[in-house]
Write a sequence for this structure.
């Protein structure tokens, strides 16, 4: 194969990896924000913490973040999620 083709393929793979890393970082950041808000209300059940950290849909995390801010307690958040 031509060196230019390999160089292009390497750049494509590198850019895909960077994009995946940015998305993963955004998801983790949103999940951590939700947990930080909820920790102000008390103890977060382990299964809820794991569910939030495992979520891979940005839209769901956005909704949970809004809900965590509006909720009066961890219990209310869990009930409405």
């Amino acid at each position: 194969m031509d060196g230019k083709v390999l160089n292009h393929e390497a750049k494509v793979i590198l850019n895909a990896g960077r994009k995946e890393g940015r998305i993963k970082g955004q998801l983790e950041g949103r999940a951590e924000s939700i947990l930080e808000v909820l920790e102000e209300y008390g103890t977060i059940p382990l299964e809820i913490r794991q569910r939030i950290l495992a979520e891979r849909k940005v839209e769901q995390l956005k909704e949970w973040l809004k809900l965590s801010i509006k909720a009066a307690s961890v219990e209310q958040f869990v009930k409405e999620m």
